[in-house]
Amino acid sequence: MSKKKKGKKPFQAPANPDGGLSKKILDIFKKQSEKSFDFNYVLDKLKIEDTKTRNKVIRLLGQLTAKGQLKHVEDKKFQFDGLEDFHTGIIDMTSRGDAYVIVEDMENDIYISNKNLNHALDGDEVKVYVFKKREKSKSEGEVVSILTRNKTDFVGVLHKKEKFGFVVVASSKMYTDIFIPNDKMHDAKDGLLVKVRILQWKDKDDSPKGEITEVLGVPGEHNTEMHAILAGYGLPEQFPPEVEEFANSIDTKIHPAEIKKRRDLRDTLTFTIDPADAKDFDDALSFKKMDNGNFEIGIHIADVAHYLQPGTILDDEAYNRATSIYLVDRVVPMLPEVLSNGACSLRPNEEKYTFSALFELTPKGEVKSEWFGRTVTYSDARFAYEEAQYIIDSEDKNIPADISLSKTSYDVDPEIVDALTTLNNLAKTMRKKRMQEGAISFDKVEVKFHLDEDNNPQGVYVKTSQDANKLIEEFMLLANRKVSEFIGKRKPPKTFVYRCHDEPKDDRLEALNTVISKFGYNINIHNKKNIASALNSLLEDVQGKKEQNLVDTLTIRTMSKAYYSTQNIGHYGLAFDYYSHFTSPIRRYPDVMAHRLLQRYLDNEPSASESEYEDKCKHSSEMEKLATNAERDSIKYMQVKYIQDQAETEFKGVISGVTDFGIFIEIIENKCEGMTRLKDISDDHYDFNEEHYAIIGRRTKKMYQLGDEVYVRVKKADLVKRTIDFELLGSVEEVAIESE
């Protein structure tokens, strides 16, 4: 990039009063900066016909050229001067109404003030002009055109006036309301939560004009809010009737003719281990002792691709959804129930079509041989994780009533007890080896809720991964890795769908080090080879401590985001050179693609189109992101719902974030996070100290720092905005002194 003078001014009219004509002229050129236009084109765009103004345009074109804002090109045409200062990127709005533009391959983001957004919204792809460059901080710029809207559908509360209305969107990243003309209200009532589509946003208008497309219900009601979360991300809920009809018409019987085409594993001991409330079982394990002392381990995956045929409306619907969505009280499946919970679910005592990865493993967990292909299997038993964990811990064949899914005690086949014990030992050996090879151990706690019949939260608990969970995880990782290796190492190369994860960026590691140093930890970020082991040591050191969830969260944020691509870069977090998603085709479309491609290459067919599958990968990654956001929003909603009636309760929390407008606090016992705004702390005026991740009182010099334990009380819980405001009672030490 060629260097420009620092301090270049944004597009503004010259000081002389020309009625903004200079800016209008520059706007024509900057919006199509790669093109050149002549004098007549400018007159036509500005709709100028009188001689006086025509002459003024001629003079201004000369002045703007002399100032270096325009340049002469061939045939008496002009072009904007400064093409190297234009960039394309994605808008990332802040809660204050300004934004940053994230540009690929640029180290620092570009700051955009609200007045220079020019109607760009969060997530939009925009063309931006940088008018101020700084060496070590973010550049500043102006949006000159919106290339692609991220979304046009929003969710908010309708406020009706006599002849119009406006919708206030709950998101902190939406800085404008949406104007609704009377004829676009479609009888929606005042105060209801609605879905609205932006129709247009003219340059002169303060707000976009929209149309109400759906009435969701009364704000704050449970079902209304769950629908609103999905609608806010443009995610589907119900299947179209024609898709349901197509799915119901599929032949789901097991046929002898099809069995003959497959490897028959129905006589091999096979079972599933899943969450207690699971309805779709898309993976099973089989176990067989071999004469040579090794073990034949099978990872059997529902053969969704057998039923989901390309070119059908069912496949189109599954691709568009790309993933199942797991809200706190419901699952929005990728596939209709007849497949997800029926034909494709590896239910006990049923024959199923499967796609399998079979491995011969030594007692030390070494892979001696592998086989991939279509199979037919029979699940002998189904276990919840709690049941499998009991067997692993006790090696007892009798499952007590308080552990069993059926709530009655029962005996497990001794063969299964032996299989589970052996598989657990193998999994531990394989996991230890992964860690030694540089894998990072993330055992992040999951927030779960005890719900009553009306989906009201009666309690919050955290779910941690135990040996039974890790057993399943380890063998799924084995199948995913080996399938991708099998294809990835072929010559000539074959198109495949990889799960990619890049190494963490240096600046993120430095930021993490700064934060954890407040708790007395440190990682050597300059030794690239040992970063993974250093992160593992950190995660192990914080186990069971008050800062664990905070450090776990910050460490995860340090990592790059995993994504799908045909361009393999390996998986940093798992320390795998090749990795794919193969084991959950009921709930993830990339797994379906992996099945199809694997079978294609097993049949010795030519490589699939790379560009076609790369597009599908990008779509899948984007839908995964939306689904994850929706799941987080539903958890946040339920946390707000749980805590809203506990206004008099004092909670102990940890300061989880510090900003120049407030501090975030996470309650230790239930992981609910809320904010105390600086203006609401009455004992002093507090200033944000970025260097120490703290706020400091001007008079008292009292400091509240990231990681400090404090006591709070709920001040306000807003179900619609999904926010919690806390009243800060003081540090743990202060409150203890006051109570003496």
TrEMBL record:
The lineage of its organism: Bacteria, Pseudomonadati, Bacteroidota, Flavobacteriia, Flavobacteriales. It catalyses: Exonucleolytic cleavage in the 3'- to 5'-direction to yield nucleoside 5'-phosphates. It is an enzyme of class 3 (hydrolase). Its EC number is 3.1.13.1. Residues 648-729 form the S1 motif domain. Pfam families: CSD2 (PF17876), OB_RNB (PF08206), RNB (PF00773), S1 (PF00575). Belongs to the RNR ribonuclease family. RNase R subfamily. It comes from the Bacteria. HAMAP family: RNase_R. InterPro entries: CSD (IPR011129), CSD2 (IPR040476), NA-bd_OB-fold (IPR012340), RNase_B_OB_dom (IPR013223), RNase_II/R (IPR001900), RNase_II/R_CS (IPR022966), RNase_II/RNase_R (IPR004476), RNase_R (IPR011805). SMART domains: CSP, RNB, S1. This is Ribonuclease R. It is found in: Cytoplasm. 3'-5' exoribonuclease that releases 5'-nucleoside monophosphates and is involved in maturation of structured RNAs. Keywords: Cytoplasm, Exonuclease, Hydrolase, Nuclease, RNA-binding.
